[in-house]
Amino acid sequence: MATPNTPFTTPGEPLGNDDWMISRKLDTICLFDVDGTVTIPRQSITPEMDMCLQEVRKKCLIGLVGGSDIVKIAEQIGGTQAIAKYDYVFAENGLVGYKNGVQFFEENIQKYVGDDDLQTLINYCLKYLSDIRLPFKRGTFIEFRNGLINVSPVGRNCTQKERDLFEAYDSVHKIRATMIKDLEEKFAHLNLVYAIGGSISFDIFPEGWDKRYAIKHLEKDNIKNIYFFGDKTFKGGNDYEIYNDPRTKGYSVTNPVETRAHLYELFGS
């Protein structure tokens, strides 16, 4: 949970005091989830949010950690060249890592789990999805990534309006949560984790391959203060583990506007 004091202030020190702005804190990072935190899900970052984050970067390190692959994250933050605007960008929960715009790390799920077990899991998911009746379905129901498998009952090719409609439908009918419960029982022997992220899908990955995976990279670089901002901080959400990790100070938000409000409280105008 977030605490009232920050690495930039001492108790009783006003945020407007310029002394804490003299030098950039290289042992401190503000680490942000992407969808629902710095952008509306699958939408582009606004100029206001982009400017806000770049102002924060003058005070400390900044980074992104998302469940999506690097292509999707880049699309949302302004293109591939925008990756270098962040000190760290972690795609696929940290299984693909970029530092100052250059990739430095990559892990893959098939090497860890094995192709036979992965194919059994994927086949089961496809059959399960074929039996679900929804108000509508589109395309790309399973997306294979380096560090995880992304499953979307409604299909990732739906429009923004359809995303919103499915999210509302899912909040009532628990389509994703019910499927996850079934998979947890069927594939308990694989020690996999299932985490709801975004508005239309959930991720499947090995135990320990949640967003906390990114922390190991930060610790290697002697980053001691990690401030995390995310919207899916509830149990079963893909921000839950890193938000509750004792190595981070977590801020739970519901949208980018709320993220900016927290940053304003931390850094002032």
UniProtKB/TrEMBL annotation:
<feature type="binding site">
    <location>
        <position position="156"/>
    </location>
    <ligand>
        <name>alpha-D-mannose 1-phosphate</name>
    </ligand>
</feature>
<dbReference type="GO" id="GO:0009298">
    <property type="term" value="P:GDP-mannose biosynthetic process"/>
</dbReference>
<feature type="binding site">
    <location>
        <position position="245"/>
    </location>
    <ligand>
        <name>Mg(2+)</name>
    </ligand>
</feature>
<dbReference type="InterPro" id="IPR036412">
    <property type="entry name" value="HAD-like_sf"/>
</dbReference>
<dbReference type="GO" id="GO:0005829">
    <property type="term" value="C:cytosol"/>
</dbReference>
<dbReference type="GO" id="GO:0004615">
    <property type="term" value="F:phosphomannomutase activity"/>
</dbReference>
<comment type="subunit">
    <text>Homodimer.</text>
</comment>
<feature type="binding site">
    <location>
        <position position="33"/>
    </location>
    <ligand>
        <name>Mg(2+)</name>
    </ligand>
</feature>
<protein>
    <recommendedName>
        <fullName>Phosphomannomutase</fullName>
        <ecNumber>5.4.2.8</ecNumber>
    </recommendedName>
</protein>
<feature type="binding site">
    <location>
        <position position="145"/>
    </location>
    <ligand>
        <name>alpha-D-mannose 1-phosphate</name>
    </ligand>
</feature>
<feature type="binding site">
    <location>
        <position position="42"/>
    </location>
    <ligand>
        <name>alpha-D-mannose 1-phosphate</name>
    </ligand>
</feature>
<feature type="binding site">
    <location>
        <position position="243"/>
    </location>
    <ligand>
        <name>Mg(2+)</name>
    </ligand>
</feature>
<comment type="pathway">
    <text>Nucleotide-sugar biosynthesis; GDP-alpha-D-mannose biosynthesis; alpha-D-mannose 1-phosphate from D-fructose 6-phosphate: step 2/2.</text>
</comment>
<dbReference type="GO" id="GO:0006013">
    <property type="term" value="P:mannose metabolic process"/>
</dbReference>
<feature type="active site" description="Proton donor/acceptor">
    <location>
        <position position="35"/>
    </location>
</feature>
<feature type="binding site">
    <location>
        <position position="203"/>
    </location>
    <ligand>
        <name>alpha-D-mannose 1-phosphate</name>
    </ligand>
</feature>
<dbReference type="Pfam" id="PF03332">
    <property type="entry name" value="PMM"/>
</dbReference>
<comment type="function">
    <text>Involved in the synthesis of the GDP-mannose and dolichol-phosphate-mannose required for a number of critical mannosyl transfer reactions.</text>
</comment>
<keyword id="KW-0963">Cytoplasm</keyword>
<dbReference type="InterPro" id="IPR023214">
    <property type="entry name" value="HAD_sf"/>
</dbReference>
<dbReference type="InterPro" id="IPR043169">
    <property type="entry name" value="PMM_cap"/>
</dbReference>
<feature type="active site" description="Nucleophile">
    <location>
        <position position="33"/>
    </location>
</feature>
<keyword id="KW-0413">Isomerase</keyword>
<dbReference type="InterPro" id="IPR006379">
    <property type="entry name" value="HAD-SF_hydro_IIB"/>
</dbReference>
<feature type="binding site">
    <location>
        <position position="231"/>
    </location>
    <ligand>
        <name>Mg(2+)</name>
    </ligand>
</feature>
<comment type="similarity">
    <text>Belongs to the eukaryotic PMM family.</text>
</comment>
<feature type="binding site">
    <location>
        <position position="201"/>
    </location>
    <ligand>
        <name>alpha-D-mannose 1-phosphate</name>
    </ligand>
</feature>
<dbReference type="GO" id="GO:0046872">
    <property type="term" value="F:metal ion binding"/>
</dbReference>
<keyword id="KW-0479">Metal-binding</keyword>
<feature type="binding site">
    <location>
        <position position="163"/>
    </location>
    <ligand>
        <name>alpha-D-mannose 1-phosphate</name>
    </ligand>
</feature>
<dbReference type="InterPro" id="IPR005002">
    <property type="entry name" value="PMM"/>
</dbReference>
<feature type="binding site">
    <location>
        <position position="248"/>
    </location>
    <ligand>
        <name>Mg(2+)</name>
    </ligand>
</feature>
<feature type="binding site">
    <location>
        <position position="35"/>
    </location>
    <ligand>
        <name>Mg(2+)</name>
    </ligand>
</feature>
<dbReference type="GO" id="GO:0006487">
    <property type="term" value="P:protein N-linked glycosylation"/>
</dbReference>
<keyword id="KW-0460">Magnesium</keyword>
